[in-house]
Automatic annotation (TrEMBL):
Keywords: Acetylation, Chloroplast, Hydrolase, Magnesium, Metal-binding, Phosphoprotein, Plastid, Transit peptide. It is found in: Plastid, Chloroplast. This is Phosphoglycolate phosphatase. Residues 1-26 are annotated as: Disordered. Signal peptide: none annotated. Its cofactor is Mg(2+). GO terms for cellular component: chloroplast. It catalyses: 2-phosphoglycolate + H2O = glycolate + phosphate. The active site is at 42 (nucleophile), 44 (proton donor). Substrate binds at residue 238.
Length: 321
């Protein structure tokens, strides 16, 4: 399905209005950088691919910091908490502070806090340690997650899998050890516990786990449970409005002053466009130029560039006299 998006607030790029997306010229990049005071960067495909920093990223971040731009790093990958991502940034030699990081694992915990999730209820986690760490920081009780990685079900006659009636929400994030026990527990909690919420950190179809091929993303984990409960989840990661509103409040950002830079049309660019941000797509991640320019694609960033470090060209430009 092709999702069409409304226009962003970019000065002169195309925005799903019939015109083809435009590769950013040096002038386009300069006016975008001049216009905004903050950049929201997607991580996978923009900053890194798997565990390798994309060429020129450290220098580009340094240049934007020297220009006094606020930088926020936002990822839909829930396998790590914000603290976990700080460790990743540091190990990759990137100079980023804890306060600049926002992950979908955190968004799930922040969402539950925002709705006053009852203190006598707990969360069943299909996902990894990132979600658990963020729930712990909010004091929200949880079960499941990595502890259920090796659980097996043996389907003997008369066997019914017990589940905890105090589970008031199931949070589903990317889980490299998803199994039938977790899917059945999640579906029992959602179907049989009155009022139990079904929350997805994100619905990304594919992701880069290795640089050799694309791998099934959290859309596959959510899809397995959605298929059983026949209910749509509440999505808290990109492109959800909840995440943008929470970021804008937490970081004190004005939407018309933000440029969203991402590699994925249906999460990053849609997130920016629906939220009224300027948008830049990079081709260093999951989106090819052919897919971007395909007539059936209705999600058009204001501009696109090969990779983030294309922005460095504005540094080298001679100053007009
Ligand atoms: O979690 C995922 C797997 O479903 C995401 O696809 C992925 O890793 C997204 O990361 P980012 O938002 O940094 O591109």
């Amino acid at each position: 399905m092709v999702v069409s998006a409304s226009a962003g607030n970019g000065a002169s790029g195309s925005a799903g209005n019939g015109t083809l997306p435009r590769r950013a010229s040096e002038e386009n990049m300069r006016s975008m950088v001049d216009k905004v005071s903050a950049f929201i960067f997607d991580c996978d495909g923009v900053i890194w691919r798997g565990d390798s920093v994309i060429d020129g990223v450290p220098e580009t971040l340094d240049m934007l910091r020297a220009m006094d731009k606020r930088l926020v790093f936002v990822t839909n990958n829930s396998t790590k908490s914000r603290a976990g991502y700080l460790g990743k940034f540091t190990s990759l030699g990137l100079n980023v502070s804890a306060e600049e990081i926002y992950s979908s694992s955190y968004a799930a915990a922040a969402y539950l806090e925002s709705i006053d999730f009852p203190t006598d209820k707990k969360v069943y986690v299909v996902g990894e340690v990132g979600i658990q760490e963020e729930l712990d920081l909010k004091g929200i009780a949880h079960i499941g997650g990595p502890a259920d990685a090796d659980k097996k079900i043996s389907l003997k006659p008369g066997f019914a899998l017990p589940h905890d009636p105090d589970v008031g929400a199931v949070v589903v994030g990317f889980d490299r050890n998803i199994n039938y026990f977790k899917i059945q527990t999640a579906q029992l909690c959602i179907s049989e516990n009155p009022g139990c919420l079904f929350i997805a950190t994100n619905l990304d179809a594919k992701t880069h786990l290795t640089d050799a091929q694309e791998w099934a993303g959290n859309g596959a984990m959510v899809g397995a449970i959605k298929g059983a409960v026949k209910r749509d989840p509440i999505v808290v990661g990109k492109p959800a409005e909840f995440m943008l509103a929470n970021i804008a409040t937490q970081f004190g950002l004005h939407r018309n002053q933000i440029c969203m830079v991402g590699d994925r049309l249906d999460t990053d660019i849609l997130f920016g466009q629906q939220g009224g941000l300027s948008t830049m797509l990079v081709l260093s991640g999951v989106t090819t130029e052919a897919a971007l320019l395909h007539p059936e694609n209705g999600i058009h960033p204001d501009f696109y560039m090969s990779q983030l470090s294309d922005l460095l060209s504005i540094k080298a430009a001679p100053v007009a006299v």
